[in-house]
Design goal:
The chain has a 4-stranded antiparallel beta sheet, with no helix packed on it. It is an all-beta fold. The protein has a single domain, classed as 6 Propeller (Neuraminidase). The longest helix is centred in the last third of the chain and has 4 residues, at 316-319. It has one helix at residues 316-319; strands spanning 62-65, 68-71, 78-79, 90-91, 99-101, 104-106, 108-113, 117-123, 126-131, 138-143, 150-154, 161-163, 166-171, 176-181, 191-195, 200-206, 209-214, 218-222, 230-233, 240-242, 246-251, 256-261, 268-271, 280-282, 286-290, 294-299, 314-315, 329-331, 335-340, 344-349, 358-361, 367-371, 375-380, 383-388. It is built from 1 helix and 34 strands.
């Protein structure tokens, strides 16, 4: 079972949605207070009117916006199947920063407003955040659903992981891995897990120990407490995904996917010839990762008789912008999710996309991704958000 949701890019598709985007973007203006919904604003270039819309007059309760009859007025707070002459939808649960995506309301809550979020992880009802901003950088925690944001410790972490009641993160400035109880650090600060002059970047934690990848192209595995880690050179660092039997991880140079079972002395090359893979997620059966040109999948077990990479779930080149590599990938029991840097977050069945992926949210520039039973969590800049998965 995956504890840490990990990164990777995604694809973009053209989409017609049923209501105006009302997102308050963190674009240099004052960000919304954590846990407080932002005020709505009309989308640029869309002027509300009551004149005929596309040759028809909008029904009572509808407003003409950008040539389309929209129910609920200029705030776009209604989600509907919207035909030009009728309104048969209801409000988006009163959430002015909720979204209408493919005619389905999605509520979005701001959990934290920090500086430069790099990764988020959800575990046992708590969201853990790695932020490497120059001013607010550090490891944080906040409850799912919102509440006080607790700073575990200052630093410049690019990754974070949780297992067995402890949270771990790289501290590249001080060339070390540090740890605290998941409930919070002691007054003296985090404990040293391992001093690593190779400058650790990415990390994953399991009940058997901790794994991390460093700038020097090595992956290391060590128990708790850590004395002498096992170290293997694999090339460029990528993210690490935990399964019930081991881990799978990406090396973006030379472009390989590895599997390392808990009972094995070292990793095994699983898939070769990939195009700069970085983000990866996995369950006990399959691994899902994002190349620069596609989201791909293969059996998670390198010993499988079907260990070759299968057809792309999504080919970015056929769907739009492929310039965002280091986004995010996450999976739950039925779906794989990924971010596209400019278009939002998308979803497909674990079995494949079929034609086009589902749109989870059109909120742009999403970064970092995690999922629990009912919600999806993602970051944009310094803000961390929670939205309904429905």
């Amino acid at each position: 079972m995956i504890r840490a949701s990990l990164w990777g890019p995604g694809a973009a598709i053209a989409l017609i949605v049923g209501c105006t985007s009302l997102d308050h973007l963190n674009d240099g203006s004052d960000p919304p207070e954590a846990g407080v919904e932002a005020s709505a604003a009309d989308a640029p270039g869309e002027e509300a009117s009551t004149v005929p819309c596309g040759g028809v007059t909008c029904a009572t309760g509808a407003t003409c916006l950008a040539g389309v009859c929209r129910c609920g007025g200029p705030d776009g707070d209604t989600c509907t199947t919207e035909t030009p002459a009728s309104c048969d939808g209801g409000p988006c649960e009163g959430q002015v920063v909720g979204e209408c995506v493919a005619y389905a309301c999605r509520r979005r809550r701001t959990l934290a407003v920090l500086e430069n979020v790099q990764q988020i992880v959800v575990d046992e009802g708590v969201v853990y955040i790695a932020d490497d901003g120059a001013v607010l950088g550090g490891a944080y925690r906040v409850q799912v659903g919102g509440g006080p944001v607790t700073k575990l410790a200052a630093g410049l972490p690019r990754a974070i992981a949780v297992a067995a009641g402890d949270v771990y993160w790289p501290d590249p400035t001080n060339q070390r891995i540090v740890t605290c109880p998941s409930t919070g650090c002691p007054p003296a600060g985090p404990d040293l897990y391992f001093q690593d002059s190779a400058q650790p970047i990415t990390i994953a934690a399991t009940t058997f120990g901790v794994l991390w990848m460093s700038f020097d192209g090595t992956i290391k595995r060590c128990g708790v407490p850590c004395t002498t880690p096992t170290s293997v050179s694999v090339g460029g660092a990528g993210r690490i995904a935990v399964t019930d039997t081991g881990v799978v991880f990406a090396s973006n140079n030379p472009g390989e996917i590895y599997e390392w079972g808990f009972g094995s002395s070292g990793p095994t090359v699983h898939v070769t010839g990939q195009y700069q893979p970085f983000a990866i997620a996995a369950n006990p059966y399959r691994a899902y990762w994002a190349n620069l040109d596609a989201v791909r999948t293969a059996p998670a077990d390198a010993g499988s008789s079907d260990a070759t990479v299968e057809a792309s779930l999504v080919a970015y080149a056929t769907l739009g912008d492929s310039s965002y590599h280091y986004g995010a990938v996450a999976i739950d029991t039925g779906s794989v999710y990924w971010t596209d840097g400019t278009k939002g977050i998308f979803r497909c069945s674990l079995a494949g996309c079929g034609s086009a992926p589902d749109v989870v949210t059109t909120f742009p520039a999403a970064w970092g991704l995690a999922v629990d039973g009912t919600s999806l969590f993602f970051a944009r800049g310094g803000a961390v958000y929670q939205i309904d998965k429905k």
